[in-house]
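Lab channel / #folding
Pinned by the channel admin:
"Please post every new chain as: sequence first, then the structure tokens as a reply. Keep commentary short and put observations after the output so the thread stays searchable."

First post following the new format, from NK:
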Amino acid sequence: MHGGGSFGHVVAKQHGISSDAGEAPAVGVAQTRGAMYELDRLVCKTMMEFKLNPYPFSPFDAVIRAGGAQVSTWLKGLLKEGLTPVTFGDVSLTASGFKVISGDVIVQELAKVMDPERCVFALDVDGVYEENTRVIIPELSPSKIKRMKVQAGDDATGGMKMKLDAAARIATAKTRVCFVSGYRRNEFSKALRGLDFYGTVVRS
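Reply from TO:
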């Protein structure tokens, strides 16, 4: 699962498209989705260069519309066949207008149906910092996250605040949630393998 980064978020903001449903120009929707599909193509191309076998899919039908049991069986089937399912943030039409389906929301939905041991967020920072410092908070609980004052950020889907809210919900179901820098390859690898790493762990 990957977010929009400098591809989808930038275009969505230009056209006023966010995680709150509302009116949006058709050209903005088309350009935002186009940016996301282009990013996904690059992500999958890179995965194949490293001998992985990506199976890209749009999140809307699989995660939002299909039943949980059906999604779980489908994803486990792909994994059994040696494929790596890859999905991404997208734009969807709702009764109230267009909205961004955030990667953080998709991760929550996937966690519900897959019941994973751990969930790893790769960030452009080392983890969650103490307020107004660069000091990493090594561990958080869902209850502590609820008491934190976190700015929503300036991306189209709420930035770190939405990630922490998602992490709190996922951790409540006994999944270990990790916040780690995607630039620190060794630490990211440790987090994926369930080892101790430099970053932030969220657990109940």
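NK: Residues 34 and 93 are 16 Å apart (CA to CA).
TO: also worth noting, DSSP finds eight helices and eight strands in the chain.
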